[in-house]
Amino acid sequence: MNPFRYGCIVAGENYCPRRELQRQLKELISSGQNVVIQGPRRMGKTSLVGETIRSIRGMRLIYVDLFCVRTAAEFCRRVVDAALKCGKGRSFLERTAALIKGLRPVFSVDRETGAPTLSIDVKSVDGVASIEEVMGMVARHAEGGKTCVVFDEFQDVLDIPDGDVIVARLRAKIQFLSDIPFVFLGSVRNRMHEIFDSPKSPFFKSAISFPVDKIDESDLVSFLQSRFRVGNRKVSSEVARLIVEAADGISGDVQELAETTWLATEDGATVGKRDVEKGLEMVFARESRLFGAMISRLTGVQLSVLRGIAATEHARVFSGEFMSAYGIKNVGSVTKAIRRLVADELIFEYAGEYRFENPFFREWLLRR
Asked: How high is the mean pLDDT of the chain?
């Protein structure tokens, strides 16, 4: 079987250890600190949190995925579903039903497993007021045991009508749950900044900032070599490093390119540079339609700026040299183009420079 996994939460042998980050995060969570984790896409933030919490003896995890949540009712349902996954047995379900009686619990039976399940009647959700009741349920579940609550893609709360009110209600409840560490994960940088770094936000300075960036290259190289061995392939440190560099050190993308490179080789083979190139072409074949759609929506100036950023390391996009090289007449045009490219999530600003969200898109663009 292909030994590489991506596009999902990885654990165990599929996870590349980040020992120092895990140690730091473990100390924060164990001491009850609330933490906000931010970083570029596909850096393994969720996997890092999951592995860390699993390493804390006796710690239960309530994991709430808020990706594309759009209503207060859906928010409440996802929190309830996440809490239910932490408990087993009918008594647990009955206790949960009692805790959320104001939300009209609904019992049912899973058709595949025959196990009793519990959900909430969306019609009974009273807007943002129900959020306090649901968070009260979480607090009761946490009594008598160590529990960590993780809100993934937390910035999507702002897409709910009255999202700012929901954020305020959450903060009002969470500040009294000092025995429960809350971890907030987000990948949309400016919106997470709006929640946690703005003095106007209820969550201002309510959680310790914990940035997550690229895994150390040497650790990724060692990980790739060990996983290729599991897949009955050999790879030198030089070729493994080539995979890391082609994927810009982004752990999810590294695993994707390693996966296609593994597919491009035979059982027992030694992976070479040409195999990595075949793997990269396989990625392009999978994504070419999406990449083409991305650039089809851009104006000429926007595409020129994008190509310039792709071709120029540490590009100074507002310099006369950059504008002259790519036929752009004025700073205003660059400003508008950058704003559009960031809004479309093709690039993002990080550490004072602009990076591509997808390193494979950057390479595909350079080749065309």
From this structure: 88
